[in-house]
């Protein structure tokens, strides 16, 4: 019971500190803006630990953070192998292929007004569909190994990137295009010097949305059949064995990989579109 | 009008490509069947055919092309096979039948809608809290954004098993996954919407000496609706995906996800494709319904779309 009391106190203290910081004079300082969510997250973890131990929650329902951490530490080789199989081989290779295909298709579609009118509504429609459902079909075609996972990822990231790129390539206005015309710029010159840079914020929007989709596709596809390695495989078998600490360790890996992947794309966006108003820091 | 013709042309092209793709995809299966039936096939044994390219097989066995569109368990079913299966399992089957897609669809749909309602409700509440409390804004909002980059769906199998072990089963576990997926888009969109009134408008209400609650009901909430609907459309599509994925890891017996899984176990490709199309039609119908509500509601509020 004492631990439960401690959890309530930890919550109160964490909230009080955050309230002081958020309403204090330094609220707009960068370090405070990082500290407040940090403290919040830490408070949640501490409460989780105390409540699980205090209420004797069974390992089968919810393992404590320290148990998960211990499992994470002892099964690093397994987690690393799963990471390589699912994230690097499945998700990343599919992501690169799918995005490249979508970008090339977008450039081709952009050259023809007719194709754009026809393909854009269909692309928008398909982007909203539950595309993970194609996983069983693609697993059947490409086998159980990572190739089928990459194929699912290709299908999943293709449409968001395509739709965003096509929209982005229409972003320049008539004046800017006329200016390029007066410079006697050819199609490709004005494409690389004007329209592609103008489209970059849109393209990166699609690329960033697709990072999460890529991981989702690679993991869910493994529920339909996989070799005996991979994050989706590990999650579904560990759930079957009620080894929930292993499941949580895999989720930690997925969370870290997802955030890192997204962060890397956001960083790249910052480097390539430093001139865009949305990148300005006041 | 021009757009309709363009969309129609592209659709026709997609269907044509689909039919053409069926030929090389299915040719090996067709030839194996033909060999067993005693029909003369050009490379005579299956082993020789395995090393040949599909295109080469099609050229040397042109008689088999028709067959590739009407196989029983093709690798890639032709569009009309999927359409026939869809028709048979929706219109011609009784709704109570275990093979009716409408039955499976409504199982998934009810989980989707329940989860969507929970997720949207909680999301809106959290957004209201975030907008009115600086502490919540600074501590919760970064996590809401980070959580968008995490493949939350990985949690799905665990949620189901954990809830099962504490005695909750049936609709609710799937609905929780749906709720989880639709929750964050709604929070992020709603916060943006509730913040969309500019300083001039907020100041105007202040000069009317309006209370915070009045400001919320008369200004913030109405101006947030366009943002809310944009994220509701994302949320409901995510909810459907959540409900379908929630049916996968537990070997559920009913629902579109269960149809997909059963189809992939037994190699019933036509069944997989028809379940997939049913899911797509369902998603499209849900998004369209939200779009209609949006149009009616915003139209009455005088928002130009």
Structure, described:
The complex is a heterodimer of chains A (282) and B (305). Chain A is mostly helical and 282 residues long. Chain A has helices at 2-23, 30-54, 65-74, 76-111, 113-127, 135-142, 146-169, 174-182, 187-222, 231-240, 244-272. The longest helix of chain A has 36 residues, at 76-111. Chain A starts with a helix and ends in a 10-residue tail after the last helix. By secondary structure, chain B is mainly α. Chain B is built from twelve helices and no strands. In chain B, helix 5 (101-132) packs antiparallel against helix 10, helix 8 runs antiparallel to helix 10 and helix 11 runs antiparallel to helix 12. Chain B is elongated. Classes of the chains: A mainly alpha (282), B mainly alpha (305).
Map the helices and strands:
The complex is a heterodimer of chains A (282) and B (305).
Chain A: H1 2-23, H2 30-54, H3 65-74, H4 76-111, H5 113-127, H6 135-142, H7 146-169, H8 174-182, H9 187-222, H10 231-240, H11 244-272
Chain B: H1 2-36, H2 46-50, H3 54-60, H4 79-92, H5 101-132, H6 134-147, H7 156-165, H8 171-194, H9 199-207, H10 212-247, H11 256-266, H12 269-301
Helix pairs in contact in B: 1-3, 4-12, 5-6, 5-8, 5-10, 5-11, 7-8, 8-10, 10-12, 11-12
Strand content of chain B: under 5%
Give the termini separation of chain B: 20 Å
Give the amount of beta strand of chain A, in percent: under 5%
How does the overall form of chain A come out from the CA principal axes?
A: flat
What name does CATH use for the topology of the largest domain in chain A?
MetI-like fold
How many helix segments of chain A?
11
CATH architecture of the largest domain in chain A: Orthogonal Bundle
Helical element count of chain B? 12
CATH superfamily of the largest domain in chain B: MetI-like
Percentage of residues assigned to helices of chain B: over 70%
- Assign the CATH superfamily of the largest domain in chain A: MetI-like
Structural class of chain A: mainly alpha
* Residue runs with pLDDT of under 50 for 5 or more positions of chain A: none
Output mean pLDDT of chain A: 85
Number of strands of chain B: 0
